[in-house]
Design goal:
Oligomer: single chain
Distance between the termini: 60 Å
Number of domains: 1
CATH superfamily: START domain
Radius of gyration: 18 Å
Helix content: 25-40%
Strand content: 25-35%
Number of helices: 5
Largest sheet: 6 strands, antiparallel
Organism: Klenkia terrae
Shape: globular
CATH architecture: 2-Layer Sandwich
Order of helices and strands: HHEHHEEEEEH
CATH class: Alpha Beta
Protein name: Polyketide cyclase/dehydrase
InterPro entries: START-like_dom_sf
Strand order of the largest sheet: 1-6-5-4-3-2
Length: 214
């Protein structure tokens, strides 16, 4: 029991102090808890809320959001890692540095491809305020969920913009629910480290591109 004490203490510190900070990277306590568009679509068992302040108005940030995607403008993150997981085929060879006019017509119901044969669906397109993407997927294969699948991961990805006196604020929220419950034993531990790395890099990438566009 004595030998277990350090491990239990470390586990408690991770769960109580470190993990909540990683799940709300860049978000202040109030935005991290405040509702955003799309929250009503998934009864979340897992949620992250992250944010970044951008030295550019929302009108310069929004075009970067609606062109996200595989074989589109990319993810503004780590392109090499995206290619490794099959999501790195981009229209310009890598994540676009600027606005690509041919991808600016995103509407509700349009697909936003994640990779070959799999895509999110735009369920909220409220320019220049909110973009919400949603997908029901097979958590084992990463493919769209089919009727009768025993395992299912339903998730939303919300991008919410708000003006600030000298720029804008971008908050990004992921909510996920799954079945059966055993899926929850694997999803958070496997996804959280990579998700944090990719999303934090993406937020910085969006901020840099929007600021440099002026």
């Amino acid at each position: 029991m004595i030998r277990l004490a350090p491990a239990l203490g470390a586990s408690a510190a991770w769960a109580g102090l470190v993990r909540p900070r990683l799940q709300t990277w860049g978000a202040t306590p109030v935005p991290a808890l405040a509702p955003v568009p799309g929250d009503d679509l998934v009864p979340a068992r897992w949620q992250t809320t992250r944010g970044v302040t951008i030295a550019a108005p929302v009108e310069r940030v929004w075009p970067l959001l609606v062109q996200l995607g595989w074989q589109r403008a990319g993810w503004y993150s780590l392109d090499a890692l995206e290619r490794l997981v099959g999501a790195g085929d981009f229209a310009e060879g890598g994540s676009a540095d600027g606005v690509l006019p041919r991808f600016q017509g995103l509407a509700v119901g349009d697909p936003v491809p994640l990779g070959p044969g799999t895509a999110l669906t735009a369920v909220v397109v409220d320019a220049p305020r909110a973009l919400v993407l949603q997908m029901a997927m097979d958590p084992v294969h990463g493919t769209p969920s089919a009727v009768g699948d025993r395992a299912r991961l339903d998730w939303t990805w919300a991008f919410v913009l708000a003006p600030r006196p000298h720029g804008s604020r971008l908050v990004v929220r992921v909510r996920a629910a799954w079945s059966p419950r055993v899926v929850g034993l694997a999803v958070p531990p496997l996804l959280e480290p990579v998700h944090l790395l990719m999303e934090a890099t993406m937020l910085r990438g969006i901020a840099r591109r929007a600021a440099s566009a002026g």
